[in-house]
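Troubleshooting: if your tokenizer reports a length mismatch, compare your output against this known-good record of 109 residues.
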Amino acid sequence: MSYDAQKDLDYIEYNISYFMNIIGMNPENLNSTTIDELVESARTMAIVTSARPSEVNTFTSGDNSQDAVLSYHSEPDYLYLRSQRIHLLSSIRRFWYLRQVALGALNRG
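Known-good structure output:
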């Protein structure tokens, strides 16, 4: 059984299109989309999971805002959203890399 780059590319592009739908991008624009646009869109989709302490302070009302930030970052919902965002970004990057490999294999013939 030989490697079928076109079949592999179809599968990879299907998965990238799936992720593009999740992050609110149009899958029809896959060929004109860059990895930077995909990653930026995925990062801004779940902004709370990448909030900096200064941004988190606006969500708290205590005098000791540093304690509030530390407790915020140990909340289960924050940890869950953060892990989901990390998995989403790693999946997007992995499939983008695999797409480049498949495109290279197609170009080589």
